[in-house]
Amino acid sequence: MRLLGFLSSIVAALSFVLPWFRLPWDGQITFLGILREILAGSNGFEGAFWWLNPNTTGTIFLFIAFFAGIFMILIGILFGLLGGRLGPGIGVVGMLVFTLTAWHIYGQGFFGTLAEGYVIALLSFIVGFVAGGGRSL
């Protein structure tokens, strides 16, 4: 059933406008806000990830891993919209990379910052991968 992979990718894309993180010092962060800072940020590459942890600067490897997770989430949605199981599967792996990188920086307090957009995207990718069907893309 390729329709479920398609629908799960649409739900994941719609979650971009919802808050993904709730930070005590700066309010809510949406996925679109993260992308906007990456693509049009005036503070450079490190300035795009200011919200990860304002007290420390992560290594370049953490920034690269985080950016790879974001890229995999976007590719997962694109492939999921084309139908099949691979798109949500890539999205799940991207969410895992995204989560592990942010969890490394925040530690145990990371789960307290998660908001509904993050949870909806993760669950929709998991449902699309498990029940999506399809052989290609």
Overview of this structure, please?
The protein has one domain. It has seven helices and two strands; from the N terminus they run αββαααααα. It has helices at residues 2-14, 31-40, 44-47, 60-81, 86-106, 110-113, 116-131; strands at residues 19-23, 27-30. Strands 1-2 form a two-stranded antiparallel sheet. A hairpin with a 3-residue loop joins β1 (19-23) and β2 (27-30). α1 packs antiparallel against α7 (116-131), α4 packs antiparallel against α5 and α5 (86-106) runs antiparallel to α7. The mean pLDDT is 77. The chain crosses the membrane at residues 60-82, 89-106, 118-134. Keywords: Membrane, Transmembrane, Transmembrane helix. This is Amino acid permease 21.
Protein topology:
Layout: H1 2-14, E1 19-23, E2 27-30, H2 31-40, H3 44-47, H4 60-81, H5 86-106, H6 110-113, H7 116-131
Antiparallel strand pairs: 1-2
Key structural traits:
66% helix; 7 helices; membrane; two-stranded antiparallel ribbon; globular; mainly alpha; 137 residues
Count of the separate structural domains: 1
Radius of gyration: 15 Å
| Proportion of strand residues | 5-15%
Query: What is the residue-mean pLDDT, rounded to a whole number?
Result: 77
Question: From the helix content, strand content and strand pairing, which structural class follows?
Answer: mainly alpha
Order of strands, main sheet, comes to 1-2
Biggest β-sheet description: 2 strands, antiparallel
E-strand count: 2
What separation lies between the terminal Cα atoms? 13 Å
- Succession of helices and strands: HEEHHHHHH
Assign a percent range to the helix content: 55-70%
Total count of helical runs of at least 4 residues: 7
CA-based shape: globular
Organism: Thermococcus onnurineus (strain NA1)
Keywords: Membrane, Transmembrane, Transmembrane helix
Transmembrane segments: 60-82, 89-106, 118-134
Protein name: Amino acid permease 21
